[in-house]
Amino acid sequence: MKAIVYTAYGPPDVLQLQEIPTPKPKANEVRIRIRAASVNFGDLLVRKLGQVTPAQFHMPALFLMLAKLYFGIFRPRRAILGSEFAGDIDTVGSAVTRFNPGTPVFGFVGPRMGAYAEYICMSENGILTEKPANLTYEQAAVVPYGAMMALKMIGRLDLRPGQKVLVNGASAGIGSLALQIAKHRGATVTGVCGTQRMEFVRALGADRVIDYAREDFTAGDERWDVIFDILGKGSFDKARRVLAPDGRYVYVSFKSKQLMQMLRTRLTGGPRALCASETEQLADLVAVKGLFESGALTTVIDRTFPLEQAADAHRYVESGTKAAQVAITVGAPMGSPLY
Ligand SMILES: NC(=O)c1ccc[n+]([C@@H]2O[C@H](COP(=O)([O-])OP(=O)(O)OC[C@H]3O[C@@H](n4cnc5c(N)ncnc54)[C@H](OP(=O)(O)O)[C@@H]3O)[C@@H](O)[C@H]2O)c1
C-alpha cells in the first residue's frame, strides 16, 4: 500500500511517499480503507518532536519527556503520522462482530497514529464507529479528536443556557467544536481566532468573533462565565476582571504555573482557574456522531491534499493562512465545498 513515511524529525520535507506492506487484521481487528485523514496539532508536533523544546511545548515538561520516550528521542519510532481518519471497513478479522466490510466509519487511533496510509488496522473495540451519514469523508476525518475533547470538557462544567462562553482559539481542533457544543447547550459564545479564520468561526455559529491580533478580549467590558484557553496563550490573572464572580477559566494547555493557579483559586473562592485533563473513549465518538447527524455540529473544509502531497498539506497549515480545516485525501477526492 501507499503510505507517507518519515524516518527523521524535521520540516514537512521529511514526509515521503513509500510503498509498504498492507497490514493484515488480527482476529479481533478490522482493516479500514482510509479515504481521508486530518492534519491536526498532534501531527505537526510529532513530525518535529525531536526539535521541540520545553519552552515551545504547551504542556508540562514532563509530558514532553514522556512524548519523546514514546515517539522516539532522536528519530521517530512510529513511521506513519495521522491519528484521525474516515474510510470504509475493508476486511474484518475472524472474531469481529461490530462491523461488516463496506461500512463507512470514522475513528481515532491517538498516539498510535498510522492514518496517512491507504489502510490501517485497529481493534473493533477501538475508538471507531459509523461515519455520520451527513458528513463527507473529509469532514468526518477532521473532527473526532477535537469533538471528543470538547464534549468531555464541556460535560464537566454543567453549562447552563444563557451563560456566556469565550473560546480563545476557536478556529481549529478542540476550539471549533467547544464553541459549537457550548452554543448547542444554549450559551452565548464568543470565538477568538486569527484574522484568516474569522469567517469560519462565524460560520460555526459564534455570536461574536474577536481577532486576537487586533483586540485583547481581557481589555473590554464584557464578562464571561467560562473562558476556554486552548493553547494557554492568555492568562487567568489577566482575564480575572472579565470573568463573572463565579466564572471559570479553563486551560486546555497548561504548565505547572497554571496548575498552581488551579490549586490557589480552589482555596480562595471567586473566579477559578481549571486545568483540563481528558482522555477519549468510544462512547464519546458515538455521542459525537449523534451530534453531527442531528445538525448540532458541523465543520468546514478549506483545502484537501492528496496523500502524495501530505508535505504540502503540512506546509499549508503551518503557513497560518488556512481559512478552515485541512484534510488529506486517500484515493479519489470526494469534494467538500467551503461553506
Ligand atoms: N488538557 C487536555 O486533556 C488536552 C488534550 C489534548 C490536547 N491538549 C492540548 O491542546 C492543544 C491543542 O489544541 P488544538 O488541537 O485545538 O490545537 P489547534 O488545532 O492547533 O488549534 C489552536 C488554536 O489556537 C489558536 N491560537 C493560535 N495562536 C493564538 C493566540 N496567540 N491567541 C489565541 N489563540 C491562538 C488558533 O487560532 P488560529 O489558527 O486562528 O490562529 C487555533 O484556533 C495542545 O497544547 C495540546 O497539548 C490538551
In short, what is this structure?
This protein has 339 residues and is α/β, with parallel strands linked by helices. The protein has helices at residues 41-47, 61-71, 137-141, 144-155, 173-184, 198-203, 236-239, 256-268, 282-293, 310-318; strands at residues 2-5, 16-19, 29-38, 84-92, 104-108, 119-123, 127-130, 164-168, 188-193, 208-211, 224-229, 243-251, 272-275, 301-306, 325-329.
Number of domains: 2
Helix fraction? 25-40%
Query: What would the average pLDDT be, to the nearest integer?
Result: 96
How far is it from the N-terminal to the C-terminal residue, by CA?
33 Å
| H and E string | EEEHHEEEEHHEHEHEEHEHEHEHE
Structural class: alpha/beta
Proper CATH architecture of the largest domain: Alpha-Beta Complex
* Sheet with the most strands, sense and barrel status: 7 strands, mixed
Rg over CA atoms: 20 Å
Instruction: Give the C-level CATH assignment of the largest domain.
Output: Alpha Beta
As for the CATH topology of the largest domain, it is Quinone Oxidoreductase, Chain A, domain 1
Q: How would the global form be characterised? A: globular
Number of helices in the DSSP assignment: 10
